[in-house]
Structures are given as structure tokens and as C-alpha cells.
Amino acid sequence: MSEPFLAEIRIFAANFAPRGWAFCDGQILPINQNQSLYSLLGTTYGGDGRTSFALPDMRGRAPIHAGTGNGLTPRTLGEKSGEETHTLTAAEIPNHTHFATATSSQAQTDTPANAAWADDGVNGFAATADGAMHPSSVSSFGNGQAHQNMQPFQVVNYIIALQGLFPSRD
């Protein structure tokens, strides 16, 4: 394997970071001991920029390229976004109706399938409807719980080169 570029990130399947590499887990490093790496990363991923800087934190994150793709929103280096779970709001649910039917006829059955609410009676439902209920009579449903919002995944480690060739800009 060739010598890596300083700050190069690789996927690594073992449970340790090899010598000269560190996990991309957001750890804070001292600038005075890592000046070359700091010159490439700066405070993009954290740190105070006087005595410390941070490595990228890839835990629980999928990488995407910085910039703007056709029809996509711009993304800047170091930006974090997304959520592991999401609770839908009313604004996110497509427009739809809940249709219910009723009749003033006498009830003929006690089974609601393929039937309509009927006039008071022992059974409660009629075979056919002669009108629809007002939309406000159908109550809302749901309890606002979050649902998972994750693509399928396989857990591996991201590591970053702490030592290596300093990359040229050309």
C-alpha cells in the first residue's frame, strides 16, 4: 500500500486505527504537535484554532461530497445534517381525505365492512348510504411518535492519516 496523503480518509474494517492513523471520531488534537495536519483541516471540524483542532467525526454519518450538485442544495466542508429519527408534522403529510358514509335508514347489520353508519337501532349499520358525513366528524389519527429515518448500513471505521505526504494543490 502506498504512503497516504496527510488528512486522507479511508474505510478500515478492523477495530483499531493503524500506526500513523486515527479514528474519525471528532477527537481534539493539539496544533503544536500536528501543524501540517492543522494547515489542511483548520477548524473545519472543530477546535479553538489557537491551541487545538478536531478531526472529522464520522460516527453514525454517511459522507457526501462538498459543493452543489444539479438540483441539490449546497453543502460545505465539515457540515453535518440529517436525523436518525423523524416525527412527521401535519405539513409533511400529503393532502388527503377520510371519507365516511351515513344514512338515515334503519340499521340492518352489526358489521361495518362495506356498510354505512345508520339510524339508531340494534345493528348500527346499513347496506347503502344516502349521504356523506361532514369532514370534521372524522377525528385525527396518530400520536406523533418518531419513526426511523436511516438507509440500510454496515458499520465500519473511518480513519484519517496523521502522517503522510503533504498534498500539493495542483
Average pLDDT score: 87
**Percent helix range:** under 10%
Low-confidence stretches: none
Q: CATH homologous superfamily of the domain at 1-61 and 155-170, by name?
A: Phage tail collar domain
How far apart are the termini?
23 Å
| CATH top level assignment of the domain at 1-61 and 155-170 | Alpha Beta
Count of helical regions: 1
Specify the CATH architecture of the domain at 1-61 and 155-170. Alpha-Beta Complex
Strand order of the largest sheet: 8-7-6-9
| Radius of gyration using CA atoms only | 30 Å
Largest sheet: 4 strands, mixed
* Principal-axes shape call: rod-shaped
Short recap of the structure:
With 170 residues, this protein is mainly beta. Helices cover 4% and strands 21% of the residues. InterPro entries: Phage_tail_collar_dom, Phage_tail_collar_dom_sf.
Task: Describe this structure as you would to a colleague.
It comes from Ilumatobacter fluminis. Residues 8-63 form the Phage tail collar domain. Pfam families: Collar (PF07484). The chain has 170 residues and is mainly β. Among the domains are: 1-61 and 155-170, Phage tail collar domain (heat- and protease-stable fragment of the bacteriophage t4 short fibre, domain 3); 99-134, no CATH class. Helix content is 4%, strand content 21%. The protein is built from one helix and eleven strands; from the N terminus they run βββαββββββββ. The protein has one helix at residues 35-41; strands at residues 9-12, 21-23, 28-30, 52-54, 85-86, 101-106, 116-119, 125-126, 131-132, 147-148, 157-161. A four-stranded mixed beta sheet has the order 8-7-6-9, with no helix packed on it. Strands 1-11-2 form a three-stranded antiparallel beta sheet, with no helix packed on it. β7 (116-119) and β8 form a beta hairpin. It starts with 8 loop residues before the first strand and ends in a 9-residue tail after the last strand. The model has no long low-confidence stretch (mean pLDDT 87).
